[in-house]
Every structure is written in C-alpha cells, then in structure tokens.
Amino acid sequence: MYGVIFDFLRSYVIERHGGRATWDALLAEAGIGYKVYFPVAQYPDEEMVTLANTAARMLNVPVTAVLEDFGHFVGPSLVTYYEMFVKPEWKTFDVLENASSKIHDAIHRHNPKRNPPKLIATRTGEHQMVVTYQSDRKLCFVAKGIIFGLSQKYGEDIQVRETQCMHSGAERCRFEVVRRE
Questions:
Q1: Rounded to the nearest 5°, which phi and psi values hold at 30?
Q2: Mean pLDDT of all residues in 85-91
Q3: Nearest CA among 111, 18, 116, 100 for reference residue 58
Q4: What letter would DSSP give residue 42?
Q5: Measured between alpha carbons, how far is 60 from 58 in angstroms, rounded to an integer?
Q6: CA-based angle 54:56:59, to the nearest 5?
Q7: Does the CA dihedral 126-80-23-113 come out positive or negative?
Q8: To 5 degrees, how large is the angle CA 77–CA 84–CA 36?
Q9: What is the 3-state secondary structure (H, E, C) of 76-137?
Q10: What angle do CA 129, 130, 135 make, to 5 degrees?
Q11: What's the pLDDT score for residue 100?
C-alpha cells in the first residue's frame, strides 16, 4: 500500500483524534514505533490493518467504524491530492465512475507492484449508481466512507446501501448509491 494512505491516516488521527501525541501513541501501541511514511513508497498492507485494529481497540469502537470514518475523512483529500486527474466540473458520481479507469490507471501505470482495488461504478439512473469494490485487502468499509466523503465535498446528499460484502463470503462488495434531491 502506498505511503500516501498512511500519511492520510496520520492526518486523520491528528485532526480527529487528539493530535500528534495520539498518532505517536497509536504507532507505539501497534508495535511500530516512530515511523515516517513517504507518499510514493510501498508499505505492507498488514501494517494498515494493524494500525486500524489498534485504533479501534484504543477508541473502543468496531474496526469497521474506524475504517469507514477514515474513508469519509480521506475522500475529499484524495480528490485534492490527485486533482490533476479530476475535472473541475465532476461531482461524486463522476469521480466514482472514473476512479479505476482514469485515476488508478494513471497513478499505478509505471509501478509493477501495483495492486489497486478494482472499483466499477455504473449509473443505473439519473440519481442512482451501483459501485462494486474488489480487493484482496477487503477494505470495503474505507470505500464506503470515501463515497460519503466525496458526497460531502461536493455538497450532495447520498444514501449508500451495501447489498453484498466480501466479509460475508461474496466475491466483491456491492453498494447501491442514491443521490437525493
């Protein structure tokens, strides 16, 4: 997993959960110790899982809640970070439709170790979309949070309903997304 995600996690912990001391405490509690994550460097996926599980334990909340809240936080940041791939007129559905085919492909094109999630977003109506997420990482809770974070960034009111999940044995996660007027 790219270091930029760990850097976003650091920002999330600092901004939403008590500052730099909380981040340092999380790293220590997770058994990682002091560490700087470089945005384009690759880090083990297991390290993210360890940090998420440790944060959930420290906050006394389910790990799924931590991951979804992190996704909600990181959605707008991803758009800003990768703004060269996002058209100014795009909204939530546009970003989701183009995430895999344009954004992920451009970011990972020259990295032979790339392993982005497979994300397919298809409009099923003017205000409806189906999003499927598939990844060995099984971070669908982050994906769901990102959808909410994008909608917040673009000032849209959406509803997300997960109709299948890899954590329940499905091959991929499936979200029905409705934009409300």
A1: -80, -5
A2: 89
A3: 18
A4: B
A5: 6
A6: 110
A7: positive
A8: 45
A9: HHHHHHCHHHCCCCCCHHHHHHHHHHHHHHHHHCCCCCCCCCEEEEEEEECCEEEEEEECCC
A10: 140
A11: 66
Cα 175 from chain centroid (whole Å): 14
Residue 104 has a pLDDT of 47
How many whole angstroms separate alpha carbon 32 and alpha carbon 26? 9
What are the pLDDT digits (tens) for 120-155? Answer: 999 999 999 999 999 999 999 999 999 999 999 999
The dihedral over CA atoms of 164, 96, 39, 56, expressed in degrees to the nearest 10, equals: -40
Q: Give dist(CA 77, CA 81) in Å, integer.
A: 6
Rg of the chain (C-alpha set): 16
Q: What's the Cα-to-Cα distance from 130 to each of 14, 118, 161, rounded to whole Å? A: 33, 14, 10
Nearest to 180 by CA among 155, 146, 150, 153: 155
